[in-house]
Specification:
Elements: E1 2-6, H1 11-23, E2 27-31, H2 38-41, E3 51-54, E4 57-60, H3 62-72, H4 83-104, H5 108-112, H6 119-139, H7 153-173, H8 184-192, H9 195-218
Parallel strand pairs: 1-2
Antiparallel strand pairs: 1-3, 3-4
Helix pairs in contact: 1-3, 1-7, 1-9, 4-6, 4-7, 7-8
This protein binds glutathione.
Glutathione binds near residues 34 and 48.
């Protein structure tokens, strides 16, 4: 049985989780937080979540894990057959993660964790995020899925990352950077009507509430 390590608030954990659910692969969830402890680094060398345990061996990096899942479990494919179209899916995943989520992540301390972000960082993020969003708008098809007619790994990425990009920019910059990309909202709603996405999001909400309650109890 595959074991997915991490926690249900993490967008990268949820990207892999929703792919496993969509593909119908049985897996066990192993709750763990990020850590730089030696024992945890043996499972996840950067100390991040998620990791995947396969027969006592560990894989890190969500996209690497998705590639492994696709190679090992070709049933219910989440990549198109055509090689160029497969590259298109990877292109979308990379734009969403490298040029949108990772950029917006610099706002999360202020948006979600009660911290503050300097004006300089806010300015850099605004500039870089606008380029990422421009690229995304150019590439995303919404017909009805982000890379075309079928659900792919690009939807697993978009479904977990876009809401965070929207919300963090709205909270910190006062404007949702995706607000003028009209198809995003109905697209996310359509994804959430799928049982796999609904389960992932229900689990995420429950975990988020539990985390907030634990924090409130501490303070
Ligand atoms: N590139 C990594 C990103 C994973 C990631 O950043 N996960 C966050 C949680 S959502 C994390 O572990 N943060 C802790 C850290 O960066 O040390 C992946 O695709 O798996």
């Amino acid at each position: 049985m595959l074991k997915l390590g991490g926690f249900a608030v993490s967008n990268y954990y949820n990207k892999v989780k929703v792919a496993l659910l969509e593909k119908g692969i049985p897996f066990e969830e192993v709750f763990c937080m990020t850590s730089q402890d030696e024992a945890y680094l043996q499972r996840s060398p950067m100390g991040k979540v998620p990791y995947l345990e396969v027969d006592g061996e560990f894989l890190c990096e969500s996209q690497v894990i998705c590639e492994y899942l696709e190679d090992h479990y070709p049933e219910h494919p989440l990549y198109p057959k055509d090689v160029f179209e497969r590259a298109r899916v990877r292109e979308l995943v990379t734009v969403i993660e490298l040029h949108m989520e990772l950029v917006a992540r610099r706002l999360y301390a202020q948006a979600f964790f009660g911290g503050t972000v300097s004006d300089e960082i806010k300015k850099h993020v605004e500039k870089d995020l606008s380029k990422g969003v421009r690229a995304f708008k150019q590439l995303a098809k919404f017909s009805p899925f982000i890379a075309g007619a079928d659900l792919t790994y690009a939807d697993c990425a978009a479904g977990v990352h876009l809401p965070l990009v929207s919300l963090s920019s709205k909270i910190v910059h006062g404007r949702d950077v995706l607000e003028d990309c009209a198809p995003v909202k109905p697209y996310l709603k359509m994804l959430n009507e799928r049982p796999a996405f609904r389960k992932m999001n229900d689990d995420r909400k429950t975990a988020t509430e539990a985390m907030a309650a634990a924090r409130a109890k501490k303070s």
